[in-house]
Write a structure and sequence with these properties.
The protein is built from four helices and nine strands. The chain is α+β, with helices and mostly antiparallel strands.
Length: 173
Amino acid sequence: MTIFHLRRSALATLATLALAACTYSATNLPAIDPSDEAACALDGMLLRDFPGPKAQVRFADGKTSYFCDVKELLGEMLAPEQRRATSAFYVQDMGSANWQQPQGHWIGAHDALYVLGSKAQGSMGPAIASFSRQVDAEAFVRKEGGRVLRFNQITPALLNEASGAMPTHAMAH
């Protein structure tokens, strides 16, 4: 091989590695329950101080960011730019967790069912509730209102509508 071919091969390898860093890891890191002192990655609010489902992103480097509201995580997931290589996104299953003090019951955000437009309140006002089972999501809708959507049905416009026209991370707390 000539130097030219070696350089081209090295560049192709670097490009492949760079692309891989911007996509999901082949191995999803498990969810980690936040400590009592865990704060929201976007606004610094303590998670323990608010009702409703929380969310987290596990990064490929092993670090974790928490969100005090599912809307915030969904906004980050739907953002056109990806800042860091991620491993997994999680939300809490409100069919199993206590709404007032949710702990544990983490489920993959891409696989969850979401209720938008309910009257249930979380840290940001009206909350988006997350569920692992259709029957639990439908029971929640009967009690609190709203509609059930899958992750692939949620758009940035729906998130803006759910938060009163402003992206959740831009709202004052």
